[in-house]
Amino acid sequence: MSEPTRSRQDPPVEQHCDDGCCAPTGAAPQAQREELGQRRRAVLIRWLRLLVAATISYNVIEAIVAIGSGVAASSAALIGFGLDSVVEVASAAAVAWQFSARQEQVRRLRERRALRIIAVSFFALAAYVTVEAVRTLAGSGDPAPSTVGVVLAALSLVIMPVLSLSQRRIGGKLGSASAVADSKQTLLCTYLSGVLLLGLLLNGLFGWSWADPVVALVIAAVAVKEGREAWRGDNCCAPGGLALATSGEEPHDDCCD
C-alpha cells in the first residue's frame, strides 16, 4: 500500500531542533554572533599589543643608534631622526596603555588622552629639530658623513612599512583612532628614513653639508602636520574614538584597508 502524499495546500512540516542545527546558513542566534565578534576582537587586541611591543623595541634601538651617531657627526637630521624614534616609543606606549584596560569603556576614555600624548610628542620633536637645523644652516658647524646613519636609515626604510601597515589594518578593524595615529607615525618614520638616507648620501658622496639641516627641517614640518591631526583626532577610521560596539560589528573604511 503506497504512502499518502501530502497535498500542496498542506502546511510545511516544521523541523524542531533545540541546538539550532536546523537553522539556515547565516541565521545564527544574535548571542552567538556577538560571542564570535568578541573573540575576534580579543585576538585583534592581542595582535595589536604584539605590534606595539615590536615597535617600541625597534625604536628604542633606533633612537640610541641615531642620536649617538648624530652627536658624533654633528648631524641635526640624524639627531632629529633619533628623537622621532623617541616620539615613536612614547606614541606606542600610549597605545599600549590604552589597550591595557580590559573594559571597553575604559579604553574609550583613554583614547583622547593617548591622541594628545602623540600630538604633544610631535610638536616637541618639531621644535627641537627646527632649532638645531637653523643653527646648522647659520654656520654653527658642518655635519660629517655617517656610515652608521646610512645603514640605520636603510634598515628603517625596510622595517617600518611592515609595522605601520600591520598596525593600521588592525587599528582600523578595532576602530581605534589612537592606534591608527600611531601607525601613521610609524609610516612617517618610513618617509623620514628615505629623506634621511638621501640627505646622508648627498653629504657623504658629494660633501653637500647643507642637505643635512634641510632634511631636518623636512622632518620638523611633517611632524607639525601629524601633530595637528593627532590633536584634532583627524584619523579616518574613528573620528569619534573607539567606535566599535560590543556587538562585534566591524566598521569599514577604505582608508584603513
Elements, N to C (H/E): HHHHHH
Rg value: 26 Å
Mean pLDDT: 76
Helical percent range?
Answer: over 70%
First and last CA, distance: 65 Å
Shape call: elongated
Describe this structure in words.
The chain has 257 residues and is an all-alpha fold. It has 6 helices and no strands. The N and C termini lie far apart (65 Å).
Describe the secondary-structure layout.
Blueprint: H1 30-73, H2 76-99, H3 104-137, H4 147-174, H5 177-206, H6 211-232
Helix pairs in contact: 1-2, 1-4, 2-3, 2-5, 2-6, 3-5, 3-6, 4-5, 5-6
Can you summarize this structure?
By secondary structure, the protein is mainly alpha-helical. It is built from six helices and no strands.
Keywords:
single chain, 257 residues, mainly alpha, 71% helix
